């Protein structure tokens, strides 16, 4: 690990750390508020085996300088800080960006502007939209209101109460100095680390310098690179619609919903790192993982999903496998007597077939581990021949933290429900 100081265009010094594999693709991690670069510890460790990992304390946080004056925290300056870091750690070529919260907001500003044009290979964003995109999103919800759009707008407004509170002079500053606001954040968000008073205090200027200016006059800001949005399902501050409804500005977009809270970066760093690494590999080599393919915004509800169907040698299990294949899923079939004939019927959507005695718990566990090792964690498991399959795969789905379904089948009525859902384009 090496530590460097990078001087921004206005003379502010930024504390920068470089770690990981020297010859790997460079990935720059940008933290949010009220964090500093230590927030990325787990993610950086997971990425470090194959990537050159750069973290830095944004101005006003950690070891970096803490300038006074609201103008020092405007988005244009923050984007220029990122440019200075990128130029210092990799003078030529392209880097990959991963950002969270306010780090995402300022990185969106850089990604959709000119300051780093041609220097960014991919961008993974968590819990922080472009403020211009957010302003346009709110207008879209209210321009032609529907019950759904009004609900989305109201929900986000209620999630954003603190933004208005931070505009009030003196009181938020006092709450940070006394430590009361930091304690409240920890009570609300157990996954958040104890925030430093100085990080929270100086970071208030991020809200005061940018929020209403950008939200009230949003500009069209397209992104010309592959972008992946990781949206925590339990985020208490940024709703999923606000984060993910950005396809009009991002032609090459993927959306992945991650089970977790706002600080999923701390609670599940390996999940964040794995997703980021997949997008980095795609940008570097062109290889697109199944996870990225199913996350494309134009993918169907079952398209590129990996589905495991047990008891698929015939009857209900075979019909279920065929129904998923017709909807574009990649299907693995298993049966006590084998399911080779079913695999043939699946044609291009058949991935593999296994002979498994589903009454043997140990055999089913070995089968589940073999599927994960050879094909990855499935998205849907249809257990047509016993309960052991449901138990064996459920833990894998929970560990991956990207959702999924385990469906025990017991009758033709259940099959009809699945087929009906498939016809409507729904996930059962």
Task: Sum up the structure in keywords.
428 residues, Rossmann fold, 2 domains, 8-stranded mixed β-sheet, 18 helices, 45% helix
DSSP strand (E) fraction?
15-25%
Provide the gyration radius in Å.
24 Å
User: CATH homologous superfamily name of the largest domain?
Assistant: Alpha/Beta hydrolase fold, catalytic domain
Structural class: alpha/beta
Quickly give the CATH architecture of the largest domain: 3-Layer(aba) Sandwich
Strands across the major sheet, in which order? Answer: 1-2-4-3-5-6-7-8
Count of β-strands: 13
Q: What is the fold named in CATH at topology level of the largest domain?
A: Rossmann fold
At the first level of CATH, what is the class of the largest domain? Alpha Beta
Approximately how much helix is present in the residues? 40-55%
Entry summary:
The chain has 428 residues and is an alpha/beta fold.
Structural features, described:
The chain is of the alpha/beta class. The chain contains 18 helices and 13 strands. It has two domains: 264 residues, Alpha/Beta hydrolase fold, catalytic domain (Rossmann fold), CATH 3.40.50.1820; 118 residues, NAD(P)-binding Rossmann-like Domain (Rossmann fold), CATH 3.40.50.720. The strands form two sheets. The chain has an eight-stranded mixed β-sheet, sandwiched between helices. Helix 2 packs across helix 3 and helix 4 crosses helix 9. It starts with a strand and ends in a 5-residue tail after the last helix. The mean pLDDT is 92.
């Amino acid at each position: 690990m090496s530590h460097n100081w990078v001087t921004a265009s206005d003379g502010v010094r930024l504390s920068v750390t470089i770690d990981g594999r020297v010859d790997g693709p460079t990935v720059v991690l940008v933290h949010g508020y009220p964090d500093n670069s230590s927030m990325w510890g787990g993610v950086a460790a997971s990425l470090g085996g194959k990537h050159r990992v750069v973290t830095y304390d944004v101005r006003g946080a950690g070891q970096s300088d803490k300038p006074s004056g609201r103008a020092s925290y405007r988005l244009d300056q923050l984007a220029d800080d990122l440019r200075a870091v990128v130029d210092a750690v990799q003078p030529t070529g392209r880097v990959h960006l991963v950002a969270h919260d306010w780090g995402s907001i300022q990185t969106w500003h850089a990604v959709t502007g000119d300051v780093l044009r041609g220097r960014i290979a991919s961008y993974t964003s968590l819990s922080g939209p472009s403020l211009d995109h957010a302003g346009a999103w709110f207008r879209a919800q209210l321009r032609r209101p529907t019950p759904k759009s009004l609900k989305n707008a109201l929900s986000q407004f209620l999630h954003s109460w603190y933004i208005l509170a931070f505009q009030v002079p003196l009181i938020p500053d006092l709450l940070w100095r006394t430590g009361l606001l930091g304690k409240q954040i920890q009570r609300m968000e157990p996954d958040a680390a104890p925030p430093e008073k100085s990080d929270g205090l100086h970071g208030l200027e991020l809200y005061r310098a940018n929020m209403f200016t950008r939200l009230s006059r949003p500009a069209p800001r397209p992104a010309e690179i592959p972008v992946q949005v990781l949206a925590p399902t339990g985020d208490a501050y940024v709703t999923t619609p606000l984060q993910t409804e950005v396809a009009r500005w991002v032609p090459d977009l993927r959306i992945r919903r991650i089970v977790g809270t706002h600080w999923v970066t701390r609670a599940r760093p390996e999940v964040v790192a794995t997703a980021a690494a997949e997008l980095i590999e795609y940008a570097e080599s062109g290889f697109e993982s199944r996870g990225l393919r199913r996350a494309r915004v134009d993918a169907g509800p079952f398209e590129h999903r990996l589905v495991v169907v047990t008891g698929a040698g015939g009857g209900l299990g075979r019909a279920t496998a065929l129904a998923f294949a017709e909807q574009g899923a990649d299907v693995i079939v298993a049966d006590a007597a084998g399911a080779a004939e079913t695999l043939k019927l699946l044609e291009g959507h058949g991935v593999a077939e296994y002979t498994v005695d589903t009454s043997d718990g140990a055999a089913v566990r070995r089968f589940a581990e073999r599927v994960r090792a050879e094909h990855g964690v499935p998205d849907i498991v249809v257990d047509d021949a016993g309960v052991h399959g449901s138990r064996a795969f459920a833990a894998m789905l929970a560990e991956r933290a990207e959702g999924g379904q385990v469906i025990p089948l017991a009758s033709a009525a259940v099959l009809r429900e699945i087929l009906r859902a498939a016809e409507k384009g729904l996930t059962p």
